[in-house]
Amino acid sequence: MATIRKRNGKFQVQIRIKGFQSTARTFKTKSEAIIWSKAAETDKYRNTEAINPSSCDEYTVGDLLERYFIEILSKRNWYKRECSILRRFQRSEIYKIKISDLCEGDIARYRDHRLRTVKPATVVRELSIGSHCLTIAQSEWGVRLATNSFKSVRKPKVRNSRERRISQEEWDRIIEADSQRGSRAMIHIIELAIETAMRKSELLNAKWIDINFSQSTLHIPKTKNEYPRTIPLTPKAIGIIRSIERKDSNSTIISVNYYTLNSWWVALLKSAGIRNLRWHDLRHEGISRHFEHGLSVPEVAMISGHRDYQMLRRYTHIKPENVAAKLALIFNKS
């Protein structure tokens, strides 16, 4: 039986099944805990040996996805989005199809159905999860498939690049609106996000112990691409950090949780009368400013954490007027 209880703001699942060793895991949300507990209670997945190829007809796509969640996704640092993808699959017809019956036509129908309600990028992520699941099943679980149907089907084209920059007029409105928020003021968090070009999760997980004030650097041990990095801090970033009250070395620099920051951001934009500005656009803004300050591509990549310079181009939107001002300065000197 699975027991779910809330401890220290998180949900702990403990499973006791007669004849098996007790196991437990902790999740941030109750829905994630429920999904994991239901899958983990299934006896056939308590056995770590490979699936018997002769009995593959007994297994459905959902069976493989649940095992994939337990053994692969739930162990990742950033698994919340993937968890929502699993729930999406659970509500689809493809979840019930037997492995031996799965074909490209099934995946194509799923793709086309999803494209009616979500963006192509979302569908591509979902198909990627399915594809990796079947790849693991083939290479590690002994599942014999003629082809990986998720990998074979045509993917929709993704055009989700943004060129959103913050204008000076918008920035003034943000500052004005934030000054009226009292204890919920967050301009220092916004400015730090821009100065460091960090992802939201990286910013909120940064701890005092990770800062080296003598070298003006911040170490980020957990990142989206799972490659730790150490970034240089601008003088303004150092000033912002020093202005924040420090509790202890192991505490986070920003003492606001993910969901609270989201609600504050939405409320601030509404108060400032600003539309179509996402938190992630602050990362775009920071990267673009670093280029405008004259940093090279490798130097900016060190800050942003991009390992693919082509991907870094999507985050770079330098303002033409800033380039014009720089050119004028150069030619006036000559």
Description:
With 334 residues, this protein is mainly alpha-helical. It folds into 3 domains: 1-41; 51-160, Orthogonal Bundle (DNA polymerase, domain 1), CATH 1.10.150.130; 168-333, hpI Integrase, Chain A (Orthogonal Bundle), CATH 1.10.443.10. 49% of the residues lie in helices and 8% in strands. It is built from 15 helices and 6 strands. Helix 8 runs antiparallel to helix 10 (235-243). It is globular, with a radius of gyration of 24 Å.
Give me the secondary-structure topology.
Elements: E1 2-7, E2 10-15, E3 23-27, H1 30-40, H2 61-71, H3 80-90, H4 104-115, H5 120-140, H6 149-152, H7 168-179, H8 187-196, H9 200-205, E4 211-212, E5 217-220, E6 229-232, H10 235-243, H11 258-272, H12 281-292, H13 297-304, H14 309-314, H15 320-333
Antiparallel strand pairs: 1-2, 2-3, 4-5, 5-6
Helix pairs in contact: 1-2, 2-3, 7-11, 8-10, 8-12, 12-13
